[in-house]
Amino acid sequence: MKKIIPLLLALILIIPVAQAQQDPRAEKILNAMSQKYQGLKAFNVVFTQTLENPASKIKETMQGDITVSGNKFRLKLKDQEIINNGSTIWTYMKSDNEVNISENDPDDQQMSPNAIFTLYQKGYKYAFVEEMREGGQTYNIIELSPLDKNNSVYKVRLQINKRDNSVKTWKMFRNNGNRYTYTIKQFSPNPAVDATYFAFDKSQYKGVKVIDLR
């Protein structure tokens, strides 16, 4: 879990409380985006993550599926599945048919996919960069820069649909040369899910080994 979570939820950072003068145009766009997602009871996203490092000639792409409802989420990847019901986290490794159980730490921002929609509100300076056309749609490009110069991320770039305030892509630039691009392939608002969806059902995983780390 320590390896996968930072990669897939890499925008969810421990942020400082410093403030900065902000770009009012960017703030208006970000506020509209944030309100759109926070107004939903739940949502499902099919996405791709691409890791690039030009200097090392690395380019790797993986696909995932995540359903979010408040502070609960269920993340499905090729090799593992992570389920968080707000108090307990189950990390299931498919190749080992093993699940690790741990307590959810509400102070750990990496555990909250919803934090992407409020990331800009504290500890970041943001600015409008440009409008761009792609696939018949117009997008606003916003860049976030952390106020903490020791942050391992030096820039985050958001591509936000001008028509409906939805996020199309976000790109994270790290000091080590790695660039992570997350692209929304499919978005489904308010899917029909109940509380049982955000819990691990051992009966559905025959012979699974359970390791309780709580």
Describe this structure in words.
- With 214 residues, this protein is mainly β.
- The chain has a domain at 19-71 and 112-189: outer membrane lipoprotein receptor (LolB), chain A.
- 9% of the residues lie in helices and 46% in strands.
- It has two helices and twelve strands, in the order ααββββββββββββ.
- It has helices at 4-8, 24-38, and strands at residues 43-53, 58-69, 72-76, 80-84, 88-93, 98-103, 124-134, 137-146, 153-161, 167-174, 179-189, 209-212.
- Strands 7-8-9-10-11-1-2-3-4-5-6-12 form a twelve-stranded mixed sheet, with helices on one face.
- A hairpin with a 4-residue loop joins strand 5 (88-93) and strand 6.
- The longest helix is centred in the first third of the chain and has 15 residues, at 24-38.
- The radius of gyration is 18 Å and the shape is globular.
- Residues 1-20 have low confidence and may be disordered.
- Residues 1-20 form the signal peptide.
- It holds the Pfam family LolA.
- Keywords: Signal.
- InterPro entries: LolA/LolB/LppX, OM_lipoprot_carrier_LolA-like.
- This is Cell envelope biogenesis protein LolA.
List keywords for this structure.
214 residues, mainly beta, outer membrane lipoprotein receptor (LolB), chain A, twelve-stranded mixed β-sheet, 2 helices, 9% helix, globular, LolA/LolB/LppX, Cell envelope biogenesis protein LolA, OM_lipoprot_carrier_LolA-like, signal
Q: What distance lies between the first and last C-alpha atoms, to the nearest angstrom?
A: 15 Å
Approximately how much helix is present in the residues? under 10%
Please name the CATH topology of the domain at 19-71 and 112-189. outer membrane lipoprotein receptor (LolB), chain A
Q: Which whole number gives the mean pLDDT? A: 85
InterPro entries: LolA/LolB/LppX, OM_lipoprot_carrier_LolA-like
Keywords: Signal
Protein name: Cell envelope biogenesis protein LolA
Pfam families: LolA
